[in-house]
Amino acid sequence: VKYWASQRKINEPFKGTLSSYAYVMLVLNFLQTCSPPVLPCLQALGRREADERTADGYDVWFQDDPEKVRTLFRARANESSLGALLAGFFTRYATEFDVDKHVVSVREARLMPREEK
């Protein structure tokens, strides 16, 4: 997606388009929320009430144990082809995502209303 965007010169925020980082966030969010998910949400995976990690007053906890990620993220394998996932990505953000109403949250693995951000 980053290559596609750079070839079309739509990854230049100083010219009013999205940054490469923004495209990465869109891809991660899509892969977390497609069915079945390809990627886990590390902030929610195996979190307990006592788990806490903060920086400058912000909650920055995430599951950083690879073994726990493998154990806890037992979603059934997504058997979609790369082409189908790419088509799903473009469909999601071209027709389902309303930029005026939503933001993507990789931290929560969802589209969220702008008011919540």
Explain what the structure shows:
The protein is α+β, with helices and mostly antiparallel strands and 117 residues long. The longest helix is centred in the C-terminal third of the chain and has 15 residues, at 82-96. The chain contains 4 helices and 4 strands; from the N terminus they run ααββααββ. Strands 1-2 form a two-stranded antiparallel sheet. The chain has a two-stranded antiparallel sheet with strand order 3-4.
Quick description:
By secondary structure, the protein is of the alpha+beta class. It is 36% helix and 10% strand. The chain starts with a helix and ends with a strand.
Can you lay out the helices and strands and say which pair or pack?
Blueprint: H1 2-7, H2 20-33, E1 54-55, E2 58-59, H3 66-72, H4 82-96, E3 102-105, E4 110-113
Antiparallel strand pairs: 1-2, 3-4
Helix pairs in contact: 2-4
Low-confidence runs (pLDDT<50, min 5 residues)?
none
**Helix amount:** 25-40%
Number of helices: 4
Helix-strand category: alpha+beta
Q: Biggest sheet, strands in spatial order? A: 1-2
- What gross morphology would you assign? globular
Any idea what the radius of gyration is? Answer: 16 Å
Query: How many β-strand stretches?
Result: 4
Distance between the termini: 25 Å
| SSE run | HHEEHHEE
Q: Profile the largest sheet.
A: 2 strands, antiparallel
Strand content: 5-15%
Chain-averaged pLDDT:
89
